[in-house]
């Protein structure tokens, strides 16, 4: 890596044309771009240029943003920050359980026309493997360069708490705008806590606002689902959908840890304080069994029924070709709460993952005769609604 | 696009560096990486030796040579099937391409060459490398790493302090 000082007689950073400096700054988050702007005159000029948000927009594949009416460096910096904010929101998020929310647990933030970001709530459809999407929050960039967000007609704020946690709550007026101006590190933490009101005053203000718009909105917290799609090295990771034992579709999140283990959790509709993110299976060793498989392993798989939805036809009933097998564990109360095991029986239940040639997989447990087959929710960055 | 004369050889793109050195690549290779070439080919007319000449007379030979090397590699990669393995091999090649023997001066010259022919893939690669050197650093650390002088005017300092009071400049 080229980290040495520039050669005395060679090209220096300041010698680069402005479009080269813009291209570099467009790869930096706003705090880092601000620090770079403080390093020298050339970077300060590029960081304040209205071309910087344009460069970032083009790199993101967005249409060129409308020039702000003010046409000043501060407006360009606001526009740059807003574009970065929208980019950071892209992807899949999981709602944290709330006492008051019984809404779907998953949200997908995707680009929409005219450089807006549209968030949808994902829920299992009543038909087979389909995923239904309902509109949630829409974010866009105002003429001033600031981000504006709305939940239907209700203005809301979408603030980061760290990189992988956001809070969606009703906007509470002009203080929000002030909180978004300037820069304090970490910017998002500052805005989140600056925008918090005292329990009484804030709630009264939000209630007034909420009532005007037809309802009170509680703050909703979401955490990012990183790595929402599998890779060749991690074929199980990601967000999946499958028909579970009660013949309805559920979402599953499979993650790899740093020590070679894999965990799968089911994402359920949250209601009350019960966790909607319960472990289903896990393993500390993600080493697959490769073919040829033993007769016992083949019997484990071939004698099982692939669970189908209530309205599913023969879709997916044929046994898929298994390319690899993984041993997994679960617990009695997860596999079947009605199994006649003593309450103090803490033994694990053993199971298998059958990885299919098409990249999907199914899982099942010893002592049951079913396979839950999972399919991708997101493919190449797009939600697969089918 | 003008049709090549009958019986013509493969059309070539020649980059001319400082000192008049020529670096050639087939037109098909240039079209994969260079937006300028793609756009220019709609307008130019090949004559005689079937070569498009692009003058990069203020850029040294070495970065121009590296630019052609990059274009050749991208064209070869474009013909192979996409896969996680291919992506991993590409990352490893990019690490070697901008290895320890590439100092900052060469990095910036390479960026200038890439911008000249709008080789977006190489622009992104070099900019990511420089951005990585800047990320998480204070202004003084950035000056040290990038070897740049603090030439901010007093007015610029005041404006920066107003907008970014948390940064120690």
UniProtKB/TrEMBL annotation, chain A:
It comes from Brachypodium distachyon. Residues 202-214 have a biased composition (Basic residues). The lineage of its organism: Eukaryota, Viridiplantae, Streptophyta, Embryophyta, Tracheophyta. It comes from the Eukaryota. Residues 197-218 are annotated as: Disordered. It holds the Pfam family F-box-like. This is F-box domain-containing protein. Signal peptide: none annotated. Residues 13-52 form the F-box domain.
């Amino acid at each position: 890596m080229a980290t040495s000082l520039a050669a005395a007689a060679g090209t220096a950073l300041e010698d680069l044309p402005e479009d080269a400096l813009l291209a570099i700054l467009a790869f930096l988050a706003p705090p880092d771009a601000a620090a770079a702007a403080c390093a020298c005159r050339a970077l300060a000029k590029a960081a304040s240029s209205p071309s910087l948000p344009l460069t970032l927009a083009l790199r993101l594949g967005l249409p060129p943003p409308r020039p702000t009416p003010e046409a000043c460096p501060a407006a360009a910096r606001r526009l740059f920050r807003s574009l970065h904010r929208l980019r950071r929101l892209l992807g899949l998020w999981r709602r944290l359980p709330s006492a008051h929310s019984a809404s779907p647990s998953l949200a997908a933030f995707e680009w929409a026309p005219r450089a807006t970001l549209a968030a949808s709530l994902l829920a299992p459809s009543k038909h087979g493997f389909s995923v239904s999407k309902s509109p949630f929050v829409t974010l866009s960039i105002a003429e001033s360069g600031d981000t504006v967000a709305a939940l239907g007609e209700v203005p809301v704020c979408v603030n980061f708490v760290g990189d992988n946690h956001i809070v969606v709550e009703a906007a509470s007026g002009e203080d929000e705008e002030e909180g978004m101006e300037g820069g304090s590190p970490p910017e998002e933490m500052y805005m989140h806590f600056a925008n918090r009101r005292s329990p009484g005053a804030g709630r009264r203000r939000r209630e007034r606002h909420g009532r005007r718009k037809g309802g009170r909105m509680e703050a909703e917290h979401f955490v990012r689902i990183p790595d929402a799609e599998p890779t060749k090295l991690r074929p199980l990771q990601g967000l999946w959908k499958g028909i579970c034992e009660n013949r309805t579709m559920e979402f599953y999140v499979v993650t790899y840890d740093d020590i070679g283990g894999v965990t799968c959790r089911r994402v359920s509709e949250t209601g009350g304080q019960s966790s909607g993110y319960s472990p289903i299976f896990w393993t500390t060793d993600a080493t697959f069994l490769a073919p040829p498989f033993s007769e016992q392993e083949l019997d484990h798989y071939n004698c099982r029924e692939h669970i189908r939805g209530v309205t599913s036809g023969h879709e997916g009933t044929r046994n898929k070709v298994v390319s690899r097998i993984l041993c997994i564990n679960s617990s009695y109360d997860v596999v079947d709460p009605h199994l006649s095991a003593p309450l103090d029986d803490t033994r694990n239940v053993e199971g298998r993952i059958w990885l299919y040639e098409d990249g999907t997989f199914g899982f099942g447990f010893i002592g049951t005769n079913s396979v839950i087959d999972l399919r991708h929710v997101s493919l190449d960055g797009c939600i697969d609604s089918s | 696009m003008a049709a090549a004369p009958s019986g013509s050889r493969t059309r070539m793109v020649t980059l001319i560096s400082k000192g008049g050195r020529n670096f050639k690549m087939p037109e098909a290779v240039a079209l994969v990486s260079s937006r300028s070439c793609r756009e220019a080919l709609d307008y130019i007319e090949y004559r005689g030796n079937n070569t498009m000449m692009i003058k990069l007379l203020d850029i040294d030979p070495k970065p121009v040579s590296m630019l052609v090397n990059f274009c050749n590699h991208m064209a070869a990669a474009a013909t192979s099937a996409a896969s996680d393995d291919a992506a991993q091999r590409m990352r490893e090649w990019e690490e070697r391409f901008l290895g320890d023997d590439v100092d900052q001066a060469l990095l910036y010259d390479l960026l200038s060459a890439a911008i000249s022919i709008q080789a977006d893939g190489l622009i992104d690669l070099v900019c990511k490398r420089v951005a990585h050197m800047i990320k998480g650093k204070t202004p003084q650390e950035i000056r040290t790493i990038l070897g740049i002088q603090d030439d901010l005017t007093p007015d610029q300092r005041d404006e920066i302090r107003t907008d970014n009071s948390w940064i120690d400049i």
